[in-house]
Amino acid sequence: MTTSTRGVAKTPAVLVLEDGRIFRGRAYGAVGATFGEAVFSTGMTGYQETLTDPSYHRQVVVMTAPHVGNTGVNDEDMESRKIWVSGYVVRDPARVPSNWRSTRTLDEELDAQGVVGISGIDTRALTRHLRERGAMRVGIFSGDAIQDDAALLARVQEAPEMTGADLSAEVATTEAYVVPAIGDKKFTVAAVDLGIKGMTPHRMAERGIEVHVLPATATVEDVYAVNPDGVFFSNGPGDPSTADHPVSVMQGVLERGTPLFGICFGNQILGRALGFGTFKLKYGHRGINQPVQDRTTGKVEVTAHNHGFAVDAPLDKVSETPYGRAEVSHVCLNDNVVEGLQLLDRPAFSVQYHPEAAAGPHDAAYLFDRFVSLMEGQRA
Ligand SMILES: NC(=O)CC[C@H](N)C(=O)O
To answer: Are residues 257 and 320 in the same domain?
Structure first.
């Protein structure tokens, strides 16, 4: 629920966590009330890409970087058509953005898109609280939406949880569309959109791939109707344990042995398609500075992450699955969470993090080349 708008720098705002902890600050962006899962991102840059990543749907993002908005907002760094976060928390917003590409301030953009935020709170204390107690539901209330604390807490405790949330259909395209190859077309890929970021088809297009982006409801027949050389499953919001439909579509692709690549939600779907479980992490991984080891090469990459769930697969052995042998290909060096899976008998792999970057380092871009190699191998 959002009510109104500008000139809000002094409008009071309250952030209420579901366990009763309260922070008081000032309105940022739109004035009103909003709810979501409170999560923190450690990215020092790339707020525009974060805000427009559909995987953040129904999440209230706390920025650990203390000063946000310095480079304003431009029209080039959007990862989708709109801001998806349900609320935004910053300590000290930039008063004067400065960047040659900037056309408006972040405060104005949040307001124009009806996104309720809060500023001027101790984001370090809030982040430590979430790290100790875990991600939880939160509400932000400003202006006329402020009531007494007990009433606000009751509203937060009625808000839906992230566990069990099935959200892809709320963010994904409803119509199929094509992202043309840049330069000579070498391959066709069917990309199942579960909440795809714009940079992902772009990274494929740069490699001569024509990408047919299909709705989350696409069937195995829809996938094969585009005559693909490879099939891709995207990132997306929500709890992977609800994603039964994409899991069954992926199983159809694995049965046929078409080269397959998945990112983030796509990695969780591959985990489920192979028979592994998924579980909710205490507070998740969000940021652009997470160390991941590629266990095939031993190399460590610094990578972009945004996930609250993870695959429960054994790190120390090769697993037998209905589609042959599978192993954990990548692992997070902070906490040993599974960050990638690969099949040994079929051309299929996935990663839990974001090789497309946007924002983030480009260390993992080689994974798009790996997908191309799989498609080349299938042709040879
Ligand atoms: N970026 C993503 O695809 C996130 C996947 C899933 N929603 C999670 O939070 O783990």
So the answer is: yes
Does 354 sit in the ligand 1 pocket, CB within 6 Å?
no
Whether residue 218 sits in one domain with residue 82: no
Q: How far is CA 231 from the centre of its chain?
A: 20
Ligand 1 atom closest to the CA of 310, numbered from 1:
10
C-alpha 93/C-alpha 28 separation (Å) is: 8
Q: Is 306 marked as a binding-site residue?
A: yes
Which pLDDT value is given to residue 380? 77
Q: Is the CB of 265 under 6 A from ligand 1?
A: yes
Taking the centre of ligand 1 as the mean of its atom positions, its distance from the CA of residue 55, in whole angstroms, is 6
Q: What pLDDT score does 198 carry?
A: 98
Domain boundary, last residue among 135, 158, 181: 158
CATH number of the domain residue 292 falls in? 3.40.50.880
Q: What is the pLDDT of residues 332-370, one digit of tens each?
A: 999 999 999 999 999 999 999 999 999 999 999 999 999
Structural domain range at position 111:
12-158
Q: Is the pLDDT of residue 58 over 70?
A: yes
Whether residue 140 is found in the same domain as residue 175: no
Shared domain for 198 and 106, answered yes or no, is: no
* Ramachandran quadrant class, 287 (left: phi over 0; alpha: psi -120 to 50; beta: rest): left
Whether residue 211 is found in the same domain as residue 307:
yes
**131 part of a folded domain:** yes
Q: Annotation-wise, does 251 bind a ligand?
A: no
Q: For 107, phi and psi rounded to 5 degrees? A: -55, -45
User: Structure pTM?
Assistant: 0.96
Is 308 annotated in a binding site? The answer is: yes
Q: Tell whether ligand 1 has an atom less than 6 A from the beta carbon of residue 264.
A: yes
Q: Which helix (H) or strand (E) holds 12?
A: strand 12-17
Rounded distance between C-alpha atoms, residue 241 and residue 259, angstroms: 24
